[in-house]
Amino acid sequence: MQHITLLLVKFITCLIAFALGLDLFFAATFTDILTFSLLVTVISYIVGDRIVLPRFGNTTATIIDFLITYVSVWVFGNILLNSYLQIAWGSIISAVVITIAEVFVHRYILKHNAIEEGPQARQSHYKQHVDYGTEFAEESDFKDKK
Question: What string of DSSP letters covers the chain?
């Protein structure tokens, strides 16, 4: 049930963001907004919330969500929309609005453990604090060639 609620919140957020970014300032159709919302909701939920958030945390997942929104509107906007200016500003405005909302969605997910811990949520091998070490030794069978 939590997954459906999260998907619904993400979808409504995307609808509002794309209505602001694409329809309010530019002439995008409701079908374009609905298509972008559905696409970004599904990709953002799978990649951002199910894969990146449990492994790398809120900041990285928020950055990934921004990039997913920006790139998806940029790429698919070239196909569906006519104006280059519409695509550029629409993707920036939409990505910023969705990123602001995703911060709160990610906090809710992390606070209420809405994403189950499974084998895919194990800690990655990424080490945030790298330990640098140097080995000092002498050659044991060094022969003097004098």
Answer: -HHHHHHHHHHHHHHHHHIIIIIISS---HHHHHHHHHHHHHHIIIIIIIIIHHHH-HHHHHHHHHHHHHHHHHHHHHHH---HHHHHHHHHHHHHHHHHHHHHHHHHHHHHT-SPP-GGGSPPS--SSPPP-------TT-----
